[in-house]
Design goal:
This protein is 16% helix and 44% strand. By secondary structure, it is α+β, with helices and mostly antiparallel strands. It comes from Poriferisphaera corsica.
């Protein structure tokens, strides 16, 4: 954590512009909805997600609870990374710690490409699914087998060269799991057509579901090589000053 904080301090001091091409595509904390029908007017009424009071499980405001099965989704306009922008999906979810779940948040265009992040039963536990991306299609990849009760955070960044998932168990900055899948660096044949919450491929979940909150989907600028060099220099300056 210390190195990360120092690097950010150096970047701020040097005034590096890293968000010139940033754009928020979806941002939802579910607090604006009065009931499930209002939420489904945005997320689709075919899905099985419901609006719940997140304070009952240690959260804040409202959230979407989904116990698997038919997904709720928001349509996207062929969203994909480019040479100058990455796509980032972030948010939180509550897990009651009970096993045998099949529930995820995902981005896909049919099955080409297909990405899901959440809990699955084969492999069991927290996992991510990556299918039909340029140069990579490993399917389900286990992140951590043991489920933990509580609110967990995720941040997934899609670029032309890689998909990087950072999963923070208990959202405390201590139990961090980072997984990176290398891509070929080619432009995508097709981008994401929907953001979805529910059962992976609409599968049921006998062990119950998850509660999702603070969902954000955005594009962020890819730092240019010169900016990355300045960022490294700023981190070194901050380290020397600290010493």
């Amino acid at each position: 954590m210390r190195s990360t904080l120092l690097a950010l301090t150096g970047a701020a001091a040097l005034g590096i512009a890293t968000s010139a091409s940033a754009a928020v595509i979806v941002e939802d904390n579910f607090d604006s909805y009065s009931d499930t029908a209002a939420m489904q007017a945005v997320w689709g009424d075919a899905g099985l997600g419901t609006l719940v009071d997140a304070t009952t499980v240690g959260g804040s405001g409202n959230a979407m609870s989904h116990n698997g099965g038919q997904v709720n989704s928001i349509a996207l306009d062929n969203l994909a990374p480019t040479a100058s922008t990455n796509v980032v999906l972030s948010g939180t979810y509550y897990d009651d710690g009970v096993g045998n779940k099949r529930i995820s948040i995902g981005l896909r265009n049919g099955a080409n490409p297909l990405f899901e992040f959440g809990i699955y039963n084969n492999p069991s536990g927290y996992a991510t699914r990556i299918v039909n991306f340029p140069g990579a299609s490993p399917s389900w990849v286990q992140i951590e087998k043991t489920q933990v009760e509580g609110w967990h955070s995720f941040n997934i960044e899609f670029g032309l060269d890689s998909i990087t998932s950072v999963f923070d168990i208990s959202s405390d900055g201590e139990d961090l799991y980072e997984t990176t899948t290398d891509l070929s660096g080619d432009a995508w044949a097709s981008g994401f057509g929907e953001l979805r919450i529910g059962g992976p491929s609409n599968y049921s979940s006998t062990g119950g579901g998850l509660i999702f909150d603070n969902i954000k989907l955005e594009t962020v600028a890819v730092p240019e090589p010169a900016s990355l060099a300045l960022l490294s220099l700023g981190a070194l300056v901050a380290l020397r000053r600290r010493k």
